[in-house]
C-alpha cells in the first residue's frame, strides 16, 4: 500500500475512527463526477483487495471533496459554510487540494469561502499556514514523517484527507467479522472504477457498509463512502473530483510566506519524538492508560484521561471550558454521552472515555467490565 497518507491508526472500529473527530466529506451526490457504469472486465473481491494492497503511488495531484453528515450537534467550532479551519473537517462539506511526490514531498490545502489552510512538507521542513489569521509555523523535522498528522498545526489525525487514506482505514477492519463483495462499476473524476463493498457481520455495529471505488488502471481508491446501518445516503464520503497520477512540479512544495505573514519557528525542545507535541501526558507526567474491549466492528476503545482539570494541568480557564462543554452533553448510561450516526462516545464520571461504532448502551456495558477499569 502506498505511503501517500499512511499513518498509525487505532485498531478498533476503524470506520468509526474515520467518522470521529474523534476518520470528513464533500458535496451532494449530484455534484460528484460520477457517470454511467463503465463496462469493465470482471474482477473478484479477492482480486480487488490484492490490487489495493499492492498498488504503487509515485505521484499525484487532485481535488478532493469531503462530506460528513454524522448527525453531530451544532458545535460552535464547526459552524460556518466551507470553513477553512483544519479542525472543521469533522462536520459539513469541504474541498481540499492534494499533491504528492514521494514520501518526502506532500501538500494538503483546505479551501474555504473565507480563506485556506495549508500543510506543506518538503524534506525536513514542514510548514502550516492559515490565510485568515495571516500566520504560519515552520517546523524543522528530525526525520521522515507524515506532514498531515505530526507536528504543530496538523490536521486532526482521525480525519482522512483523501480516498487513499480512508481506504487504508477501512482495510484495517477486514477480518472474519467482515463480509466482502463486489458493487457496481462507476466513472469517478473521469476515470473507470470498480466498487468493493465491506459489511460488518455483527449487526450490533452502527456501520451498515463501506464502499470503496477503485481506479481500474492505477488500482488506487477514488472514492470511499461509509453508510450508517439502515441509511440510504452516506454519513461520510471522501472522493476525488479531479485527479492526475503524474508527479507534481517541485514548486508545489516550496512555501514562501506572503508579505505580512506572522511566522513562528517551532521549538524542537518542546516537542516529542519526530516533532510530535507532548500532548499525551497528564499533569502528573503519566501517560493516559488505554485498552480495547472486543474485536472487529463492535470493539470499543477505552481511554482514562482523568478530569478536565487534571488534563489541563494548571490552566484553569481551559479546564473550565472543557467541563462546560462536557456538561452540555446528555446524561445517561453511566455518564455523559455523545452520539452520531456512526459512533457513540461515553465520558464516565471517573475520567474514562469510551468510543465505538456501537450504541451508548453497549458502551455502558463495556464501562462496567473490570477489564475496562484501567486502574
Automatic annotation (TrEMBL):
Which residue ranges does the record annotate as region Disordered? 135-161, 257-290
Its name, as the record gives it, is MucB/RseB N-terminal domain-containing protein
Extent of Basic and acidic residues compositional bias? 277-289
Query: PANTHER family from the xrefs?
Result: SPORULATION PROTEIN YDCC
InterPro entries for the chain: LolA/LolB/LppX, Sporulation_related
Superkingdom field:
Bacteria
Amino acid at each position: 500500500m502506498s505511503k501517500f497518507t499512511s499513518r498509525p491508526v487505532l485498531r478498533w472500529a476503524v470506520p468509526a475512527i474515520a467518522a470521529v473527530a474523534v476518520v470528513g466529506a464533500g458535496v451532494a451526490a449530484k455534484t460528484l463526477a460520477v457517470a454511467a457504469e463503465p463496462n469493465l472486465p470482471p474482477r473478484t473481491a479477492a482480486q480487488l483487495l490484492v490490487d489495493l494492497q499492492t498498488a504503487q503511488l509515485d505521484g499525484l495531484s487532485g481535488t478532493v471533496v469531503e462530506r460528513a453528515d454524522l448527525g453531530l450537534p451544532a458545535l460552535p467550532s464547526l459552524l460556518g459554510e466551507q470553513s477553512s479551519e483544519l479542525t472543521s473537517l469533522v462536520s459539513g462539506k469541504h474541498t481540499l487540494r492534494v499533491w504528492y511526490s514521494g514520501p518526502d514531498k506532500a501538500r494538503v490545502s483546505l479551501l474555504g469561502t473565507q480563506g485556506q489552510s495549508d500543510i506543506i512538507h518538503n524534506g525536513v521542513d514542514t510548514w502550516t499556514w492559515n490565510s485568515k489569521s495571516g500566520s504560519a509555523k515552520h517546523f524543522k523535522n528530525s526525520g521522515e514523517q507524515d506532514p498531515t498528522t505530526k507536528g504543530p498545526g496538523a490536521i486532526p489525525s482521525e480525519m482522512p484527507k483523501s480516498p487513499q487514506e480512508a481506504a487504508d482505514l477501512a482495510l484495517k477492519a477486514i477480518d472474519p467479522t467482515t463480509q466482502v463483495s463486489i458493487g457496481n462499476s462507476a466513472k469517478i473524476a473521469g476515470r473507470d472504477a470498480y466498487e468493493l463493498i465491506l459489511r460488518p457481520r455483527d449487526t450490533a455495529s452502527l456501520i451498515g457498509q463501506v464502499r470503496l471505488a477503485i481506479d481500474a488502471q492505477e488500482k488506487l481508491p477514488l472514492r470511499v463512502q461509509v453508510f450508517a446501518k439502515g441509511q440510504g445516503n452516506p454519513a461520510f464520503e471522501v472522493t476525488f473530483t479531479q485527479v492526475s497520477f503524474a508527479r507534481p512540479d517541485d514548486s508545489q512544495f516550496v512555501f514562501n510566506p506572503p508579505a505580512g505573514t506572522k511566522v513562528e519557528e517551532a521549538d524542537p525542545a518542546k516537542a516529542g519524538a519526530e516533532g510530535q507535541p507532548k500532548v499525551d501526558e497528564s499533569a502528573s507526567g503519566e501517560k493516559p492508560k488505554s485498552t480495547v474491549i472486543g474485536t472487529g466492528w463492535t470493539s470499543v476503545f477505552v481511554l482514562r484521561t482523568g478530569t478536565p482539570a487534571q488534563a489541563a494541568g494548571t490552566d484553569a480557564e481551559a479546564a473550565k471550558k472543557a467541563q462546560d462543554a462536557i456538561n452540555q452533553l446528555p446524561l445517561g448510561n453511566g455518564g455523559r454521552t455523545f452520539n452520531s450516526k456512526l459512533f457513540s462516545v461515553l465520558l464516565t464520571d471517573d475520567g474514562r472515555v469510551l468510543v465505538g461504532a456501537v450504541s451508548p448502551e453497549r458502551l455502558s456495558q463495556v464501562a462496567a467490565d473490570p477489564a475496562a477499569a484501567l486502574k
